[in-house]
Amino acid sequence: MPGEPNQMTYYKDIVRYLTALDKASDRVTMFKIGVSDEGRDMFAIAVADEATIKQIDKYRQITAQLTDPRKLTDAQAKQLIATGKPIYFATGAIHSPEVGSPEMLMELAFRLAVEETPFIQTIRNNSIVVINPASEVDGREKQVDNFMATKAGKPSPSMVYWGKYVQHDNNRDGIGVGLRLTQVMLKTFLDWHPTVFHDLHESATLLYTSTGTGPYNTVVDPIQTNEWWLLAETEVMELTKRNVPGVWTYNYYDGWVPNYMFWIGVTHNSIGRFYETQSYGGAQNRALGALNQSREWYRQNPTPNDIQWGPRANVNMQQSAILIAMNHVAKNKDTFLENYYLKNKHTVERGQTKAPHAYVVPARQRRPVEAAELMNLIRREGAEVHTATSAFSVGNVQVAPGDYIVRMDQPYNAIVETLLGVQFYAPQNPRPYDDTGWAIALVRNVKAQKIDDKAILQQPMTLAAADFKISGTITGSGRVIIVDHNTDNTLVTFRFQHAGVKMSAAEKEFEAAGHTFGAGAFIIPDANRAALEPSIKELGLSAWAVDAAPAVAMHDLDVPRIGYVHTWNRTQDEGWVRLAFDTFKVPYTYFGAPKLREGDLRAKYDVIVFPHAGAGGADLITGGVTGNEPRPYKKTDLTPNVGTIDSTDDMRGNIGIEGLMELYKFVQQGGVFITEGATSTVFPEYNLTPGVNVETPEGLYVRGSVLKALVGDRTSPVLYGYDQNALAVYFNQAPVMSVGGGGGFGGGRGGRGGASAPGVPNMQPNAAPSTLTTLDGPPVAAAPGAGGRGGRQGGAGRGGFAGPGGGGAQAASPRVLLSFPTSANDLLLSGLLVGGDALTGRAVAIDSPIGKGHVVMFANRPFWRWQTQGNFFLAFNAILNWNDLDAGRTAARPVGTGTGGQR
């Protein structure tokens, strides 16, 4: 019974229930929507009256037609609106510990199918309800395993894993669309074109219905923002009329970042929305205690103290609210269908009348595979991509045949602007809920040119009918094959696919076969062309066959044994790195941090990767899972769904001092330790990387933004393939790192307030002028309210490394590979930044030698949320060149020779 205490339903049993409901009722149809990352089938159902279910494809076609106003007259649209029915799509449990929505949605499906009250009949007769009971089906099974263990009096294994890759961030994949979960939900959305797309969550008391504090992302149609308030205020009012307390709106999230799953609806002109309902943790009723909620304008009926709450209350609250929304949409079906049509129509008109009118992405740019993948992402979103059929120019932009053109006069231009545009989050706005900048073309290192000239819409082009696939080539003949290094990520796949083939990396630029190759180019002597050519073609690589190896210093690309470390209390962040490794077929041995204490690491691994793990420094040493008894994470008869990604007899502890010393010994003996984000602070905070400092400046506020990083020591193998002077990187507040004798100290407060007087709200925060810079341009002028001092330079400052384009670092000193610009006005590429002086000149990527090995530290997050593909090869280079990271530091190697073997 849904909502019954001490009960929780496995997804497999939810499917059994919905299958039975489908068989029993002509008002229900069930269908498969995809397969999860762990291989589970995913299902949804549609509920409506019998006649509608029999003609379900007809109604899907009507909403599909209303999506594209370019093919309709207003008269035709009016007829479709009168005939059609809105589709209300409800989806639950993307966050696995939020357990109530699958239970509620089962009961809701039953009520919609069988109940004969006028209220339910209105929904059933005038609309179509689509229900996906659980988005994260893999996590649902693990969550119920945990519940069953607790119910049986056994230790709970914990929810250290939800899906195969990430935990809470599975609801932050709406931009990158890297997880199977997101891919399935996006495809299902595009198959149905729902009028409302409603995601159910649990983290607020008692029910928050989404509107947001602002700023609202400017890609959102104004009709939609008013629909948010219309539905939210309807729910608040109707539940308040029924004396239901604790129902509110506004003061939760902002409405800015489009990475949530419900934004699939927002960026496709449906009504994307969500609830946050009071969770109930386990399955027992409990008192919520003294909440002492105040009465505010957005919460007129606050939650009383000591209210009793449990699974039934959770189900009732969610179901009551969503039924009110569904009933309102059904009663006003023509209004909501008309709004949907008009949002699509207005979007097309904006692309015709307001800049930008298009984006041009050169097909023959340095990273053609990644450029094609970005275009395929746009196509996956349902948007159109064209290719130029002849050469032309628009303004100062030269367009070549085959170049990609993404027009803005199309219904889904919101997702186009999301992926190809840049964002500015004015500091005068409320504190952001999540990231403030993403600038996908920049962080994927893909050149995209914004076109403000309307003439682009009249140029010769053809609509792409299929995804783009770059076919690699080998030019020429000869026994030596040279593969260009352009940082397309498929190059790392190529190396590991042919692990048994001797390959070397050039340490300098050279000429061969009439082509200029940069440092890092793969040189394959005595190559078996027949064995290599299929991979080169499939992976989109560019290669040349020549008669003899070039006269250039080179080193062997020794295939490493990779160890991959995770903690047992947080896999949220490392899962994105694991997804990248799996996608590009980088092999690794995966293990928990406590195993580092076992030692003998150098005998097992050449490279150890330790991704961001939440907290850094001392917490990674002494923190972790606690308890007096062993905490196993293993598959058992009682918990059959856990322990599939990794397992252990005891999760307790973390690296420990012993593990830290073993890591240090590993590096001293010739291993390479690669870190990012918080894990990059461990060695510096324990003074194991001399000259590298971790700072904690005051006045700095940078919330998930895209910043400019200057390319430093170009001779480092970590930078092979990067031919630009600056690179876009994702940065989120910390760590702030420097190399040299001093670093920053003191510091003023940057301040986030606007120009308003105290107590007077700033009603025009988005009127603030943009302070964005560009990768190639000069610093911009600072805007009022955006400045403030960060940490001041003191002591020896941040010297001791080569600037952009500088020569090689001296032996044994840390090499700064990337650094922030020296002007605070030259930092922000996308998002929000206050107090940027705290970052000026600071290091972004550092290679610190210890003994025979190296620690490669990234203050940025090279593998952020399947968005920063342009940064992936920073880490891949460190892996591929692990045995020769000193290249460029010392006297040149003999021409035409390589080095190899374990140090």
Structure description:
Helix content is 27%, strand content 18%. The protein is α+β, with helices and mostly antiparallel strands and 903 residues long. The protein has four domains: 11-348, 3-Layer(aba) Sandwich (Aminopeptidase), CATH 3.40.630; 355-463, no CATH class; 473-552, Alpha-Beta Plaits; 562-755 and 768-884, Rossmann fold (3-Layer(aba) Sandwich). The strands form nine sheets. Strands 26, 27, 28, 29, 31, 32, 36, 37, 38 and 39 form a ten-stranded mixed sheet that branches. It has an eight-stranded mixed sheet with strand order 1-2-4-3-5-8-6-7, sandwiched between helices. The protein starts with 10 loop residues before the first helix and ends in a 23-residue tail after the last helix. The model is unreliable at 742-757, 782-810 and 891-903 (pLDDT under 50).
For this entry, give a set of tags:
903 residues, alpha+beta, Aminopeptidase, Alpha-Beta Plaits, ten-stranded mixed β-sheet, eight-stranded mixed β-sheet, 23 helices, 39 strands, 27% helix
Reading off the top of the CATH hierarchy, the class of the largest domain is best stated as Alpha Beta
What quaternary form is this?
A: single chain
Strand count, sense and closure of the main sheet? 10 strands, mixed
Number of domains: 4
Strand elements, count = 39
Rounded radius of gyration (Å): 28 Å
The secondary-structure class comes to alpha+beta
Shape estimate: globular
User: What is the average per-residue confidence, as pLDDT, rounded to a whole number?
Assistant: 93
**Which second-level CATH architecture of the largest domain applies?**
3-Layer(aba) Sandwich
Kindly, what is the distance between the CA atoms of the first and last residues, rounded to a whole number of angstroms? 63 Å
| CATH topology title of the largest domain | Aminopeptidase
